[in-house]
Amino acid sequence: MSETPTAMTHPTKLRIWQQNVNQSLIAQLDTLESADPKGYDLILLQEPYVDHLGATRATTYWTVVYPPRHRDAPKRSRSIILVNKRLATSSWTQIDVPSFDISAIQLQGEHSILQIYNVYNDCLHNDSLTSLAKQLRSTEHRAHQPTPRHMIWAGDFNRHHPLWDDVRNSHLFTETALDATQPLLDLLGIHRMKMALPRDLATLESTATKNWTRVDNVFCSADLLQSFLLCDVDPTRRPANTDHFPILSTVDIVPMVAKESVRRNFRQTDWDAFGKMLKEKLERLDEPREFRMGERAAFERARKDLERAVMETIEDQVPMAKPCPHSKRWWT
What we know:
Blueprint: E1 14-20, H1 25-34, E2 42-46, E3 62-65, E4 79-84, E5 92-95, E6 102-108, E7 113-120, H2 127-137, H3 139-142, E8 149-156, H4 175-190, E9 193-195, E10 204-205, E11 212-213, E12 216-221, E13 228-233, E14 247-251, H5 271-283, H6 296-317
Parallel strand pairs: 1-2, 7-8
Antiparallel strand pairs: 1-14, 2-4, 3-4, 5-6, 6-7, 8-12, 9-12, 10-11, 13-14
């Protein structure tokens, strides 16, 4: 299990922050600042920032899930998932989708399985949708599941359609645009997916025209729709350097959490005081001596007394760590 600070609360609902950050480091760091790990379980990023070493950015409270082939060509990855480390590592696994534009995980609950696909669909083609369709047809996906299985498809689909765009954007419903959207509609129909994000909500403000349009979306299994307590856009929390608004979702699913544990901050220890206390405790013990064969019981008593003296000193003199939720794991 991952270590998590005691200050972090147990989630009673699954909370998701969805965001396209336009490959901007500033936008990604701004998202991490806003998506408090005490309040969100998953961050779904499209077009994430990737540095020259092929790594993205995340604070210490998140586990990064890259597309399976990320290391082959890191700069091609346009979808990652950040999983809160308070979620039990035994409760989720990565789903390997053969695409640089899809990252996916499976959450194992007490009574059901939830598969979450974070999708970036290119403006010029539907390759990611083809990869998603292939994954959903795969033997692994069609294998018998002991519990009900639900799905969420979230991401930047880069498609306009009257089913979700505001009618004032009817100029976007060209024959070419509608033809490009048809494979997505077909896939939604085949798998009985419903739109969780209400129609007419804009998710992007055009940098050039300032027009608000709908390119991002959230779809879910039909029988999961009623479990969405919230699925909304919040333009006021848009990160810097991106034209996409965050999509915030709350699902009535209780995620399994890791056993909370705490750790001590030895760097902040007053070692003079530590040494003084330890010396006092050791002086109360028997004088050190060499133990011979046949004195196993006496040796064990001496070992336990020594261990107890050290542990009591640590408990008294070493403060508990209070990590900042926004600390960066590559900083000392």
